[in-house]
Design goal:
With 365 residues, the chain is an alpha/beta fold. The protein has two domains: 1-104 and 272-365, Isopropylmalate Dehydrogenase (3-Layer(aba) Sandwich); 106-263, Isopropylmalate Dehydrogenase (3-Layer(aba) Sandwich). It is built from twelve helices and 14 strands. A hairpin with a 6-residue loop joins strand 11 (267-271) and strand 12 (278-282). Helix 8 (225-234) packs parallel to helix 9 (246-259), helix 10 runs antiparallel to helix 11 and helix 11 crosses helix 12. It is globular, with a radius of gyration of 21 Å.
């Protein structure tokens, strides 16, 4: 008997729960029509957990997150909790989850659906068919390195310090994820750093070269981060998997995001050691300005679930089906408000979910 896919759903706050309802419709469809089996639990996180448990991530929720194959996360935060102590704030729950699950690899695909090529800031021919994966190292580098801080100098000046630091094991484990991913895609990795001016960048390059020897079928290139930023807006389709550190990844993934248009379309994954932690979430936040109105775009959350199918559950066919269904719906000019254009059919969050399920059904029959 095949193993059930265990999943903890944490819808969170704002539009998180609204979008997650649409994921559950897809889960139900997959169970009924594709014989996939899920073992699903659900709990509060963020502001909702603060209201329910007095903290944004309860201990029992964290334990469950460690047990399951994958966590599906909505979004957290909102003005209701602005006055809450920092360590209990909604965002603290997400940070704790990432830290406790040791999620060191952040995956942000930049996938351009053809019907949305006009939403890109680049010319359609540059982004049509675009499919890049950015792997950002998430738990090391300059955001965490010591020493750090601001000191007063005796001459009256102030000095701000942050330290870019990477150790071999951090580079190796991120590189393994990148090469494994490339093996499931077009087989190319571009490793990005500033080896020309930073010792940590030189170490990064040398250590990635060592790991590359384990993957003879993957083509590895190296690129300086400033050049990569330029190439991303010049000829983005040259890339398959971009492997980079925390700081450069932060910036390059935001550049890549804008190649494909709206925040409501962007999924992400954060992975720990294989089989020991995976969290899938849309890039967007809880959007309190539109929460409760039924107008949020659920596609980023739905595509995050597709990533879970592909990268945690090894159900690539089901992931392909969801992505094809999203493309079909968009090709039929069906749009939520954030991606709407004159002459198209404006639908609600729930209607968008229904259209995607219908498209899956049609593609399968
Ligand atoms: P946001 O991503 O929530 O919203 C930015 C803008 O994009 C808003 O105008 C919103 O309406 C729109 N938008 C976002 N997602 C959309 C969707 N799916 N469909 C349609 N429109 C969408 O960012 P923000 O406004 O800076 O933050 C709001 C709250 O979310 C804050 O409390 C912030 O801390 C939190 N936040 C949480 C996460 C997370 O949970 N991972 C990430 C970012 C922000």
């Amino acid at each position: 008997m095949s193993k059930k896919h265990s999943m903890l759903i944490l819808p969170g706050d704002g539009i998180g729960p609204e979008a997650m309802v649409e994921v559950k419709k897809i889960v139900a469809w997959l169970e009924e029509h594709k014989s996939l089996e899920f073992d699903i639990s659900e709990d509060s996180v963020g502001g909702a957990a603060y209201d329910q448990y007095g903290t944004s991530l309860a201990d029992h929720t964290l334990e469950k997150a460690k047990e399951v194959d994958a966590v599906m996360f909505g979004a957290v935060g909102g003005p209701k909790w602005d006055g809450v102590d920092y360590d209990k704030r909604p965002e603290a729950g997400l940070l704790k989850l990432r830290k406790e699950l040791n999620l060191f690899a952040n995956l942000r695909p930049a996938l351009c659906f053809d019907p949305l090529v006009d939403a890109s800031s680049l010319k359609p021919e540059l982004v049509s068919g675009l499919d890049i994966m950015i792997l950002r190292e998430l738990t090391g580098g300059v955001y965490f390195g010591e020493p750090r801080g601001i000191t007063e100098l005796s001459n009256g000046q102030r000095r701000g310090v942050n330290t870019q630091v990477y150790e071999t094991y951090e580079i190796h484990r991120a590189a393994h994820v990148a090469f494994d991913l490339a093996g499931k895609r077009s087989g190319r990795v571009t490793s990005v750093e500033k080896a020309n001016v930073m010792e940590s960048g030189l170490l990064w390059r040398e250590e990635v070269n060592i790991i590359a020897k384990d993957y003879p079928n993957i083509k590895l290139d190296h690129m300086y981060a400033d050049n990569c930023a330029m190439q991303l807006v010049r000829t983005p389709k040259q890339f398959d998997v971009i492997l980079t550190d925390n700081l450069f990844g932060d910036m390059l993934s935001d550049i890549a995001a804008m190649l494909t248009g709206s925040l409501g379309m962007l999924p992400s994954a954060s992975l720990g050691e294989v089989g020991k932690g995976a969290l899938y979430e849309p890039v967007h936040g809880s959007a309190p300005d539109i929460a409760g109105q039924g107008i949020a775009n659920p596609i980023a959350t739905i595509l995050s679930f597709a990533m879970a199918l592909r990268y945690t559950y090894n159900e690539g066919d089901a992931a392909d089906l969801i992505e094809e269904a999203v493309n079909d719906v968009l090709a039929n000019d069906i749009r939520t408000a954030d991606i709407n254009q004159p002459g198209m059919t404006l639908v609600s969050t729930s209607e968008m979910g229904n259209h995607i399920v219908d498209a899956m059904q049609k593609l399968e029959s």
